[in-house]
Design brief:
This protein is α+β, with helices and mostly antiparallel strands. It contains three helices and four strands. A four-stranded antiparallel sheet has the order 1-2-3-4. The longest helix is centred in the first third of the chain and has 51 residues. The chain is elongated. The protein starts with a helix and ends in a 6-residue tail after the last strand.
Length: 158
């Protein structure tokens, strides 16, 4: 009865409001870095999924072309045009979610590609990867064998 009468007659004091507000601000400050880390982890996982899709497409292409992976020319998206749309149906598979720019057929993919390999080459050779520093100074890189490696970049992406 006392609490009901106290809050209905007097309401909250300014001090009580400031204390509640400061607690909310402190909690928000604690949660914000955790959500940023969770978002980056999700972007990294999507990038790994993209590289796995590219790996399947590259292997399908090589199986149909005598074991040779797609050639790459002077135009940045040449290898991408060999895979899209016959082996990969969504252009989004060529976009690293952590990369600040979105790659398309017109501008080129967000991943680098090393041409000149065949299915018979060293399965640990790197063939596709993120541009340097996409994932906070780290990169996802795809091997010919289909494994995705997460390693430190040579330089950080601007």
């Amino acid at each position: 009865m006392f609490l009901k009468r106290f809050f209905s007659e007097n309401g909250f004091t300014m001090i009580e409001m400031l204390v509640v507000l400061s607690i909310i601000v402190i909690l928000a400050a604690l949660i914000t870095p955790a959500t940023h880390l969770a978002k980056e982890k999700a972007r990294k996982t999507q990038c790994i999924n993209n590289l796995k899709q590219i790996s399947v497409a590259l292997n399908m292409f090589a199986n149909e072309h005598g074991g040779d992976f797609p050639p790459d020319g002077a135009v940045p998206n040449t290898w991408m045009s060999h895979l899209f749309p016959n082996y990969i149906r969504a252009e989004e598979n060529f976009d690293c979610p952590s990369h600040p720019y979105v790659g398309t057929l017109a501008t080129g993919p967000d991943y680098w590609y090393q041409s000149g390999y065949t299915l018979d080459d060293n399965p640990q050779a790197l063939i596709v990867g993120c541009y340097e520093g996409c994932h906070a100074g780290m990169e996802n890189k795809l091997t010919i064998g289909g494994n995705v490696i997460f390693q430190k970049s040579a330089t950080a992406f601007p």
